[in-house]
């Protein structure tokens, strides 16, 4: 019988997945934070900014259409390196664009870079699913999200700081280098060569495995969790574009959404990951969603000043870490030991989660516009924050009923063998 010590020796260290997620986090933070600041400085209206951010999230939502490619041919770590290089080069090429006269082209190129970098997520998810035992997946989820959100926010802080003192081309090239540099870390993951199979055979296996997961109670109920507005922490995506409304200085925006926010979110992710290995992961997710609603409500009720921006945003980012680590841990639990189709199965659930973030961001944009029309520009962000709180609470109520009905709220992780 395999001992616990032997099991630990066979899997890669959980912290390495945090390093692998650096490009994904930096790319996402650039799209949500730095891109918003750039567009705001170029006098792009708030609704268009929200649409650009939402569209960047929709890329991740529909990437399941081409994700099976990373389950074919090369090792996943090889795909990871290739995608980091392609994404970094695309981002760096935006240095050649005259943004003042071609703002749409700049947005499109940033989104194109995201198409490549977003595919690194399924690579990492597949590696975690195939190389880690279930008892450490919560910890790995914590570290991976620390790299994704925490270190990604620090990357956004760097790009925002550079944008204050240097030209946009410098920001583009520096960001491109940050996307490419972590690629070689993947070589440290001990991954077996994939079994060579015909493409048709592989796709049949994928369809069979995906259907097996989808029809299980764990699978279909998990999809409902992923597609719900709970724990999306969507307001985080718009904090930089609301900075003027709170009279926050550029340096404060860079620190809050970058360095300080990155450290706070990273630590929160890691702590949440350890917690998720000790309790039911879906209950942890619902608790994180409830905390999100409370935080958004308090920030909406607070005065519209820089202090509120600092305290509110940093607290929200703390809660974001809890949400994202619980989400990833739940997804890894759902797909179990997916083997050759791990990346494809992983992205189906994360795509649902990204779709949820995208539609919540868009709804919050409508909330901002509605509040602006009803109560004026001075307090418009309150509309977005109240929308965020309402959607989270409504989702928690519905999902709590599901948890009680299915009896999945007791003990540790679900028994994936139970099917409907």
List the main descriptive attributes of the protein structure presented here.
16 helices; disordered C terminus; single chain; 0% strand; globular; mainly alpha; Growth Hormone, Chain: A; 420 residues
Please explain how this structure is put together.
There is one protein chain. The longest helix has 34 residues, at 342-375. The protein has 16 helices and no strands. It is 72% helix and 0% strand. The chain is globular and about 60 Å long. The protein has one domain: Up-down Bundle (Growth Hormone, Chain: A). Mean pLDDT is 82; it is low at 1-9 and 409-420. The protein has helices at 4-10, 16-20, 22-41, 46-61, 76-92, 103-118, 120-131, 137-165, 168-180, 199-215, 217-227, 250-276, 281-301, 306-335, 342-375, 381-406. It starts with a helix and ends in a 14-residue tail after the last helix. The protein is mostly helical and 420 residues long. Helix 8 packs antiparallel against helix 12.
Overall tally of structural domains = 1
Determine the number of helices (DSSP H or I, runs of at least 4 residues): 16
Residue share in helix:
over 70%
Q: Would you tell me the overall average pLDDT?
A: 82
Uncertain runs are 1-9, 409-420
Main sheet record: none
Q: Provide the succession of SSEs.
A: HHHHHHHHHHHHHHHH
Number of strands: 0
Q: Any idea what the radius of gyration is?
A: 20 Å
Which CATH architecture? Up-down Bundle
The coarse overall form would be: globular
β-strand amount: under 5%
CATH class: Mainly Alpha
């Amino acid at each position: 019988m395999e001992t616990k010590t032997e099991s630990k020796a066979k899997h890669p260290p959980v912290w390495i997945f945090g390093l692998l997620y650096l490009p994904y986090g930096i790319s996402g933070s650039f799209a949500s934070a730095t891109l918003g600041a750039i567009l705001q400085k170029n006098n792009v209206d708030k609704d268009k900014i929200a649409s650009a951010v939402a569209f960047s999230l929709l890329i991740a939502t529909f990437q399941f259409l081409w994700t099976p490619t990373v389950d074919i041919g090369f090792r996943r770590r090889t795909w990871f390196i290739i995608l980091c290089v392609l994404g970094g080069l695309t981002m760096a090429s935006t240095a050649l664009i005259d943004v003042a006269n071609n703002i749409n082209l700049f947005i499109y190129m940033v989104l194109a870079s995201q198409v490549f970098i977003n595919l690194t997520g399924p690579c990492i998810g597949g590696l975690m699913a195939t190389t880690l035992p279930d008892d450490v997946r919560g910890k790995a989820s914590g570290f991976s999200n620390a790299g994704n959100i925490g270190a990604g926010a620090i990357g956004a802080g760097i790009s925002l700081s550079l944008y204050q003192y240097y030209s946009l081309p410098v920001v583009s090239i520096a960001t491109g280098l940050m996307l490419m540099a972590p690629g070689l870390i993947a070589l440290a993951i001990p991954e077996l060569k994939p079994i060579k199979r015909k493409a048709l055979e592989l796709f049949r296996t994928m369809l069979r495995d995906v259907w097996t997961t989808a029809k299980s109670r764990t699978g279909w109920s998990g999809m409902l969790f992923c597609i719900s507005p709970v724990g999306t922490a969507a307001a985080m995506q718009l904090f930089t574009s609301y900075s003027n409304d709170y009279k926050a200085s550029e340096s404060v925006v860079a620190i809050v959404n970058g360095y300080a926010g990155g450290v706070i979110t990273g630590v929160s992710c890691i702590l949440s990951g350890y917690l998720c290995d000790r309790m039911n992961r879906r209950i942890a997710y619902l608790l994180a969603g409830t905390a999100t609603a409370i935080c958004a409500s308090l920030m909406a009720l607070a005065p519209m000043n820089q202090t509120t921006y600092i305290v509110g945003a940093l607290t929200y980012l703390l809660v974001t870490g809890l949400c994202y680590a619980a989400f990833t841990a739940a997804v890894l639990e759902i797909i179990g030991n997916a083997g050759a189709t791990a990346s494809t199965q992983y992205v189906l659930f994360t795509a649902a989660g990204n779709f949820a973030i995208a539609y919540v961001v868009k709804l919050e944009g409508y909330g901002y516009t509605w509040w602006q029309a009803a109560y004026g520009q001075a307090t418009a962000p309150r509309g977005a924050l109240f929308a965020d709180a309402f959607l989270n609470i409504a989702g928690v109520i519905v999902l709590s009923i599901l948890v009680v009905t299915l009896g999945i709220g007791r003990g540790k992780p679900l028994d994936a063998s139970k099917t409907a």
